[in-house]
Queue: 4 jobs
Job 1
Amino acid sequence: AGQLAGHSLLRGHLPSDIDIFTFKSDYVHPVKNGRFEAGIKTSYVKNNNRVRYENYLNGKWETDLVRSNHFIYDENINAVYVNYNTEIKKWSFQAGLRVENTIANGHQLGNQQVPETKFRRDTTNLFPTAFVSYKLDDKNSLTVSYGRRINRPNYQDLNPFTYFLDSLSFRQGNIYLRPQYTHNIELTHAFMGKYITTLNFNSTDDVISQIIKPDPSNPDNKIRFLTVDNVASFRNIGISVTAPVKVTQWWSGNIFTNVFNNHYKGVYDTTKVDLTFTTFMINMTHTFTFGKGFSAELSGFYRHKSISNLTRMEPIYQMSIGLQKQVLKGKGTLRLNIRDPFAWQKFEGLNQYGRIDGNFSARPDLRQVTTTFSWRFGKNGQQNPPPRRRNSASQDEQNRVGQGGQ
């Protein structure tokens, strides 16, 4: 990659090699009126990043030692869990506990201009879960649940390399980034198993967020850089409703709506952070059934102005269309999906804290057209029951491979 900044020319080579090894084993034992489960998982990840920048000076390329680095990160996570659930008359109970030990090592090798940096973290955490449900009658039930969970940073967010966005801004990782921990409590009422109302409360410590900072090496503070840090505590409280809708014999739908308040509070680099906002979102899916095997689906969502990770976001909305036809005497299905056909989805927002006051607008082309064909081989064209879905043992680790902040 190359970039022209004023009278200078800069190019960089930023390869990244990530190796992931995982092992997972689960045990399930039925017991009277319930089930006992246990399991173990171990994972090892090695992230090797070599970053080399060069300046074009005096007719030749010369290595920029200040911007170049070599960062190695390895992480070993070992976990064991137990879970038990049972039913007693109108009551249902479930309780579980997961114990995790994480050993992480980071090493920036350094060079003549950049000092060597190392860190090691060895932490053990407990993640309990609890669930209690009571059937009020044949149509109504109440459920209370609690859980503690962890959200670890992406591997690239831990990488301290510099990635230039333009002549006045760049992106940099943070080797001191810590995981964020969340306590979540929910109270749910279900009517006829279809109309669901949920009150939720969750609290998060050490929120991982993108943040814009002035470059301390630039005296006039014109240059900004984007990084990721643990910036504040976060509290979310809301109520959601899920309801099916039957308009006619050939038109049915499902509506999900959520009204919630987000509150970020803390201190970052001596700057007080105190942002709160109440907003709502709605998600709808409509299904239309026509004659001769034809059907259609219209879905979409709208989220009003909100606050997400210190960013004040403008409304976001999108629509998708699906068409379906049964063929081959019902044994085959031909489907056409069109995502965001009018390119409505865009991202606009404002970052405003301390000395940072900036707007952004992004309109990625998310339109997508897909066609699928499925053929059922079961007796009389009936599809066999789908197998139980299980995530890959390395799914969590693969989700952390993407670019930081995504």
Job 2
Amino acid sequence: MARLEFHPLSELRGEAAAMLAERYARQRVAEPLLPAIDDFEPHVAPDGLVATRGGGAVAYLADEHGELRRPSFAGHAAREPEALRDLWTELATGDRFAITVPATDAELVDTWFRLAFGCQFMWGVQEVKTLEPVDFGGTIRPVDPADVEAIVDLDWVLHNLQKLPPSYSDMPTQTRDEARAEAAELWEAGTTFVTFVAELDGQVVGMILLHPRPTGDLRVPENNIDLSFASTLEANQGRGVGLALFTHAMRWADEQGFRSMTVDWRSVNLSSSRFWPKRGFRTTYYRLYRRVP
């Protein structure tokens, strides 16, 4: 068998785009809600390597600079998945790495698993549909500027949960002033965020935030709404607040004519990784992560 040869991705972007098109065709068979793409070359990054064997392209891997490498949804494709391990060996520097892998492509997932990558993050999608309301003993309404302190509290619930095991997030903690300033974006004129809060006995105990995330990548379908944030105060968890917010958001999305809803979650967040698949979201991509000691 001919040996692998490596070439700059910038010189063989057309061949890389053809491999990406083949990979993505398999993805859309498994998940038809993924967006339709006609031209794949613009999705291929300019930097990286292409592996060839006997003159034919067999794999490519994009190279994004920085301590944590995070190639996009189009960051790699392969006719010979094993060649990705050689490409990563050529490109890897530093001690923190991440790769975005199609969840339905078992060969690609296995390739990165055998390079000691583990699952950290997931993206999911499902069709929008009308769901029956859930009675949690309270009411759901649009967010109001008077809710700012409650929103800060709910943001901290999720942020603090991510810092605990098994997630161990190292994201810096916001001050309350920083969180208030961020929350103010929810009701600014022209905002694209749609936010609902759950109120129980006069207290805001949960919230859910929707956002029409921009399309144009290999993840977000046309006519899609993204479920960007959801949180329930710890003392009220287990009472159906989160489920009530989700069914309300889904009914709203259906009334607005959206076709699909996307969401993402940390696979190491036990609550999220159990809640969202139970709500019908199908995993489209994994973010796999490796840190070298």
Job 3
Amino acid sequence: MRMAGRDWPVGGGEVGRLLRAWSGTESVLGAPSGWSHTLKAAVQLVVASPAPMTLIWGETGVLIYNDAYAVIAGARHPAILGRSVFDAWPEVTDFHRGVLDTLHRGEPLSYRNLPLVLQRNGIAEDGWFSVDYSPVLDAAGAVEGILAIVNETTAAVMALDARNEAEAVLRRREQELAQVQKIGKVGGLEVDLRDGFRNRRSPEYLLVHGLPPDAIHESHEDWVNRIHPSERAMVESHFREAVSGTANDYQAEYRIIRPSDGAVRWIQALARIERDVAGKPLRLVGAHLDSTERKEA
């Protein structure tokens, strides 16, 4: 068959070559020379597209697809080319019946991350797909077939599931750590040292220091002002010397006046100072323990 002096369909890679070799016995559609103009135009559109596309033609839903869709079909290609969609994918027959019923009423359909269990390579596989279905109309406006653009999103969905699981595990660990900190009266803290002192305090730190929940990002000055007046200058000087020096470890023990109740409490501070290759301080990560009972004993 030739169209405008050229073999038809034009191009189309492997599927195009298969269709050009059809004699008419390969499908209930018969020889391509007898196909309607609408079917020929739709097939040419499909095989020339780089996106995974298939036609589902007629009441029986005959499949004519392109090379990109053949990749999705897996080992079922090329046997399903020209077959009914119900024979090609019997495991999702009910789904395709719903699609054909809807589209033959002239209504389009779209799915995003649609879960399907398919046997593409001899075993049942979970897959996720984003599919857009559009009716193909003849000159009189009647639905002759369905055009489907199919994108497999399995890898993206599985990656998202793995990421969500990892985040869930991290949240569980954070909750467990928070419980341990609460039991041990240990407060976690982080100080960004790259440009001044930008603090982040854990909920347990706020409890140890008698601070409200909104003090999670308290300023350096707020911390200094909480230190007992008789030790304030010495403690801050020691902190600044540790940060500006070369040490990676920071330790201190001092008294604070707890804002929540005015109580004097002893704080034991243990921290690690992270530095770049030049020794410039980047971050301090540490813990504050309420050591009052130990000091009093």
Job 4
Amino acid sequence: MACLAEPPSLLLLGDGELRNERLEWAQPLDRWTVLYYQHSNAVTVNAQTYLVEPGAMVFYAPGVKATHARVDEGTNHFFMTCNLPGNDGSRSAIPTHCPHMERVLPDMMRAAYRISDDRRPGIAFAWNLFWSVAQSAAVFRQHEELYAAESWIFQHLS
């Protein structure tokens, strides 16, 4: 679940290969990581395994535990790590695995290659990406009372 009331503060955007630190990790509590896979891999997020093919994206939410079956050579990908600072407003469901996301690669590449000169294209890309995959929170729960409880908990965490 994510609050998309404000644009993300972009921390990192680029490309590379998966390294050993991505074999198994816990996602930091304050940030999302999104990977666009240019290779096949098996990804586990909170004990749910996804088989990813080239062109798929995986959204790693804050606090998830994750693994990759394959790292190092031949694991090319584009990545984005950002915070979603919004706290007020409704929350949206962000799917973990999105296959067939080839349409976003050109924009992601343009934003990544411009990040050292201008962060705004990266921020715009990130916010648009989250909005493009966001779904109603109702897709995950059948009882509205659970949303009210979750909202109250998020507002009173401190």
